[in-house]
Amino acid sequence: MSAQDEQPLKVCSHVIFALQETRRYKVISVDNHHNSSPKALERVAQIARDNLPANASEKDKDSAEIDAQTADLTKRDEIKKVFEKYGKGGIWGVIHIAAYKAVGESTEIPLTYYENNVSATVYLLQTASEFDCTRIVYSSSATVYGTPPTIPIPETTRLEAHSPYGKTKIMCETIISDLCSAEPKRWRGLSLRYFNPGGAHPSGLIGEAPIGRPGNLFPLLGAIAVGAQPNTLKVFGNDYPTPDGTCVRDYLHVLDLARGHLLALDALAPESKVFDNATSDARYKAYNLGKGKGLSVLQIIEAMRKATGFEFKYEIVGRRRGDVPDLTADPTLAEKELGFKAKEDLDTMCRDLWNWQTKNPKGYDA
Ligand code: WQD
Questions:
Q1: Is the Cα torsion angle 83, 86, 91, 96 positive or negative in sign?
Q2: Each residue of 178-221: pLDDT tens digit?
Q3: Which Enzyme Commission number(s) are on file for it (predicted)?
Q4: Whose CA is nearest to atom 27 of ligand 1?
C-alpha cells in the first residue's frame, strides 16, 4: 500500500485502519514520505493496538503492527527491495493509492504526473508480477468521468478526462485491465473510483493533514474554522446548472471509503464470486465508491458552520479550471457486488473532521 500525496495519505491511513480492524491482514505500508508524515502510521498502529481484545493471539497482535517501508515507486530498485524482503508469493496483494492528485497542478507539470502516477504503476505491477503478487486494488477517481452525460453516474459511462491527472487515472485503469486480460489465470484487479472523501476517524488520531493551504473544500473549511487558515473562502462559481448554482459532489466518509477497499481486497480472493458474470476472461472490474447523494458547495459550508459554530466568510468568484457541475455516483454496482454501503451521513463527516481538526490544529506535527 502506498501514498504519495496528502489525500491518499489520509485515505491510506484509514485504509490501513480498515484492514487492521479485521485482523485478517498484515499491512506493509510503502511511502516515499514526499508529502506525508510517518507519524500517521504510528497513530494507526496505536488505534489497532488499542482495539485488540484482552485475549488477543500473537497473530492478532502482529496484525496491529505495520511494516512501514520507505520507497519511491518511480525507482524500480526501491520497489524490488520491498518485495525481496517477503520473497516470491510472500505478499498477497497490493492496494495502490500512491498518486499526485491536484487537477490544476497536473496541467502545469504533466510529465511529473505521468511519471509519478503512470510509470510508477507500471514498475509496481512489473515487480509485483516478478514476485507472484498478482492481486491489485487500484485507487481511481470520479475524475475519469470528465463531464458525465448522466447523473447519477454508472460505471458504464464513457471515460474522458479534462486534465493530465484524470488521464493518468484512465491510463492506469487501462494498464491494469490489459494486464488482467493478458494473464487471466494469474492477475485479478479492481479499480475503485473515489468520489469525494471527507471526515476523519472518530478517535481524532488520524485525518487529513495537507502541507500548506488545503486545496480541497472539506479540509479547507476545517482549517479555516480552527484558525489555521484565514477566514476567507472563494466559492468557485455559482452559475452552474445546479440547484443553488454551485458545484455538486458526492461526499462520503473516508472510513466508508476505506472499508470499501477491504471489501475489494476480499473480492480478489480465489473463492470470490465477483468475477462470475464477467463479460470476458479478464478478472478485472471498476466500481464507484460514493453515496449516490449530491451536495453543493454552499450546503457543505452550511453543514460545517453547524458542526463548528464558525461563521465562514466567502466570496463568489469565477469557475475553477477543470471543475464540472456535478459528480454524483450511482453506487449500486459496488453495493450489489461488493456489499459496499457508504453509511455515514454529512453531519457525522463534519463532526469527525472537526474533532480531528481541533485535536490536531497543526496536523501531525503538533
Ligand atoms: C469540491 C468543490 C470546487 C475549494 C477532488 C480531488 C480530486 C478527486 C475528486 C481523488 C468543487 C469547490 C473547492 C475551494 C471551492 N479525488 N471549492 N472553493 O474538485 O471534486 O476533486 O475529489 O481522486 O483529485 O481534488 O474536490 O474539494 O477540490 O472541490 O468552491 O476553495 O468545492 O469548485 O466544486 P474536487 P474539491
A1: negative
A2: 999 999 999 999 999 999 999 999 999 999 877 788 889 999 99
A3: 5.1.3.2
A4: 216
Give me ligand 1 centre to Cα 218, in Å.
Answer: 9
Q: How far is the CA of 217 from the centre of ligand 1 (A)?
A: 6
pLDDT, one tens digit per residue, over 28-42 is 999 887 777 788 999
What integer is the mean pLDDT of 67-90?
96
Question: For ligand 1, is residue 143 a contact (CB within 6 Å)?
Answer: yes
Query: Is residue 194 in contact with ligand 1, taking CB distance under 6 Å?
Result: yes
304 lines ligand 1 (CB under 6 A): no
Q: Enter the ipTM.
A: 0.96
For the chain, list the domains and their CATH numbers.
10-365 (3.40.50.720)
- Helix/strand/coil (H, E, C) string of 88-116? CCCCCCEEECCCCCCHHHHHHCHHHHHHH
| pLDDT (mean) for 305-320 | 97
